[in-house]
Amino acid sequence: MTIAQDWAEKYRPTKLADVVGNNKPLQALRDWEEEWEHGVPEKKAAILSGPAGVGKTSAAHALGKEMGWEIIEMNASDQRTAGIIEKVAGSASRMSTLTGIQKRLIILDEADNMHGSADRGGTRAITNVIKKSNQPIILIANDLYALSSTLRSHCVNIKFNSIPQRSVLPALKKICKMEGIICGTGVLEKIAENTGGDLRSAIKDLQATATDKKEIEVVDVTTAERDTKESIFKVLTNVFKGRDPVEAYRATFSLDETPEDLIQWVDENLPNQYLDKDETLSEDLTTAYHNLSRADIYLGRVRLRQNYGLWRYAGFLLSGGTAMAKKHSHSGFRKLQPPSMWRRMGQLRSKRNMRDNIAAKVGLHCNEPIRDCRIDLLRMYGLLLKNEDYAVDAAYSLELDVDEIAYLTESKRVTKKIQKIYDASREMMHEKEDEDIDVFMHAPEKDRGQSTLDSMFSAEKDLAKENQTEGKEKDNPKPAKSQKTLFDF
Ligand SMILES: Nc1ncnc2c1ncn2[C@@H]1O[C@H](COP(=O)(O)OP(=O)(O)OP(=O)(O)O)[C@@H](O)[C@H]1O
């Protein structure tokens, strides 16, 4: 069986003129590009923000292609620690003028998705890369305001909007024509309506509808289930405001959440939602928590016996049980919020990841097992970073980012002093890179071996080394490599 090519990819526009809708943002993008033709503009980066599937990534790539710029893309599936952004985007953004080749466009997709542990410190690193860049950089984000104000202030902000139906329809018609699909009346309108200005989803729905068919009718229209954030809020509103237990329970069926997760949502919001007008705890709250505790007992049994059939009792008790606990309705709007436990767990996890990442760097530098570094050496490096004479060297040798320096120096926030140490260490790193380029440029042709680019983009190799360290710790705690000590610098 052959797997059909994804139409959204197949019909991705390759020219800016083919990008549908959003004329003003596209013009702003062209204006920014024009500035590059006259040298390095004041704003070296542009942020393309807006809803999903409206052509932001396509526009960035189309621009690069049209201009004949070399494109370097880092998307969310790449590991984007501050160090790696510095290495990949940083060296790419500074290098081409040295080697005299074409401009290089750096595209950072999902720039608003830098919160995971792996992306820690990434936002600050991007700002630094932009400051020092002499190459165009495009950041792509759904939520502009998820990016720091400092980062935004260094960029041209270009906002994309949902694509109006009148533009989605011709795009879909064109695809039908290319694929030889005959459409009955109203089919494309229905698809366009369902996808609310998201052209990617519209194309995907069209492909799903037209699979194995040459002619499609309205009844064939298949719309992919889209689990939006709104849906959990809708279900919770049903649970907290409604009185019918069966309806509340049924509402949970549309969610892609397990009762394990759903109970956390209900637990988090229940006290606030069932608070009496005079802000006293109501009897309803006691009854609802009683039902919730029963649901929790069932969840415990599911875990213990691995009997997932019991989930339905838990699901009913936590939704219907909560809804029917009300003796009277609790009017007025009260904000719903995600479980704070997840946030706390996330913070703990990110702290642990931070500690482990630093320990891995120390391990690589000192050629020590990570476990020992975690226990003994992190404190030592903390002391070195607190000492003015050693701080910059320590940060440089370990390639620490600001958050890591703050962690090691036990500072609650990134102070000016920490930023200074970090800046000085990066300066040191760039000087070293420039020296390397100099050595390379002056080496005889035959000794150059790999191209400059290969030697500069050593990020992947470094990453592999980092990963190796973890592996080596298990297999061979001390690989044969010359030992470096704390006193090396
Ligand atoms: N304005 C558009 N013009 C033409 N095709 C589009 C447009 N918007 C989306 N598409 C189609 O949808 C696909 C995805 O678009 P693209 O990746 O550019 O969206 P995006 O706005 O970057 O979305 P996300 O924020 O999810 O990354 C493209 O391959 C293309 O087929």
Q: Determine the CATH superfamily of the largest domain.
A: P-loop containing nucleotide triphosphate hydrolases
Please trace the helix and strand order, writing H or E for each element. HHEHEHEHEHEHEHHEHHHHHHHHHHHH
Question: Which structural class fits the helix and strand makeup?
Answer: mainly alpha
User: How many structural domains in the coordinates?
Assistant: 4
The main β sheet shows up as:
5 strands, parallel
Low-confidence stretches: 115-119, 224-230, 449-461, 466-489
- Which ligands accompany this protein? adenosine-5'-triphosphate
Strand order of the largest sheet: 2-3-4-1-5
Give the mean pLDDT: 80
In helices, the fraction of residues equals 55-70%
Proportion of beta-strand residues? 5-15%
Radius of gyration (CA) equals: 28 Å
CATH topology of the largest domain: Rossmann fold
Tell me the number of helical segments per DSSP (H or I, 4 or more residues long).
21
Number of strands: 7
CATH architecture of the largest domain: 3-Layer(aba) Sandwich
**Top CATH class of the largest domain:** Alpha Beta
Shape: flat
What gap, in angstroms, lies between the N and C termini? 61 Å
Pfam families: AAA (PF00004), RCF1-5-like_lid (PF21960)
Organism: Methanohalophilus portucalensis FDF-1
InterPro entries: AAA+_ATPase, ATPase_AAA_core, P-loop_NTPase, Rep_factor-C_lsu, RFC_lid
Biased composition (Basic and acidic residues): 459-478
Topology:
Layout: H1 7-10, H2 23-37, E1 45-49, H3 56-67, E2 70-74, H4 82-99, E3 104-108, H5 122-132, E4 137-141, H6 149-153, E5 155-159, H7 165-179, E6 182-183, H8 187-195, H9 199-210, E7 215-216, H10 229-241, H11 245-251, H12 259-273, H13 283-305, H14 311-324, H15 340-366, H16 370-386, H17 388-398, H18 402-408, H19 416-442, H20 452-456, H21 459-475
Parallel strand pairs: 1-4, 1-5, 2-3, 3-4, 6-7
Helix pairs in contact: 4-5, 7-8, 7-9, 8-9, 10-11, 10-14, 11-14, 12-13, 12-14, 13-14, 15-16, 15-21, 16-17, 17-19
The site of adenosine-5'-triphosphate has 22 residues, from helix 1, helix 3 and helix 9.
